[in-house]
Amino acid sequence: MSPTNKSSLTYLALGDSYTIGEAVPQKESFPYQVSSMLNEQGLKFAAPKIIAKTGWTTDELQAAIKAEKITETYDIVTLLIGVNNQYRGNSQAEYRVQFAALLQTAIGFAGGNKKHVFVISIPDWGVTPFGKGSGRNTATIAQEIDTFNAICKEETLAKGVSYIDITPGSRNAATDASLVASDGLHPSGKMYSEWAVKVSNAVVAVFK
After folding, report:
1. DSSP 3-state assignment of 173?
2. Which of 44, 54, 150, 195 places its Cα 20 to 30 Å from the Cα of 89?
3. pLDDT band at 78 (very low <50, low <70, confident <90, very high)
């Protein structure tokens, strides 16, 4: 049966503050904007189920997923995780192992359908007012984010899953304050909209 024959399609979003939409209204978070855009394109999605919390690293997300004891599968799953691994100075080798495990978990939530899983790259927080005022070297932050993303991309493509690169666009916040939320760190609804367009286009390409 075609997915569009179902009364309502389901979406699971896994991540951290970037997935819950810290500092913006819920409807401006990227998962809610993705659902809205997909509905506008004729794919009837229910409100997303979100497992995400500000500050979570890969191992904390995995622990939270296990605690949820989810038994159902979802029509699409997004995964965006790793900024807090970088922020805390955690090992890149550890990130690789834990991210790969999370990706496998995400595929399981999609009923084993890799085409219905979408990994989103880690944005560069160093370009934000918070990043610039953090006392850290912003060039080093950028370099480390790129390294974590290279691991993320390699593991994602090795599993045959879509990798959506939002990092270059996130760096436009260096010169465009409208892309940053009121807390000076997280993306604004406008930036999340840019991510949501990329994700929803990738989903539509699979479903139609």
Report:
1. helix
2. 195
3. very high
> In three state form, how does the secondary structure of 38-64 look?
HHHCCCCECCCEEEECCCCCHHHHHHH
Torsion of CA 2, 201, 188, 120, to 10 degrees: 90
Per-residue pLDDT tens over the stretch 155-195 = 999 999 999 999 999 999 999 999 999 999 999 999 999 99
DSSP 179-195: GB-TTSSSBPHHHHHHH
The type of residue at 60 is: E
Six-digit token string for 172 = 């436009």
Cβ-proximal residues to 185 (8 Å cutoff; 6+ apart), any chain: 22, 23, 125, 128, 129, 130, 131
C-alpha span between 205 and 163 (Å, rounded): 14
In this structure, the number of other CB atoms found within 10 A of the CB of residue 141 comes to 19
**End-to-end CA distance of the chain, in Å?**
13
- Rounded to a whole number of angstroms, the CA Rg of the chain reads 16
Rounded distance, CA 188 to CA 208, Å? 30
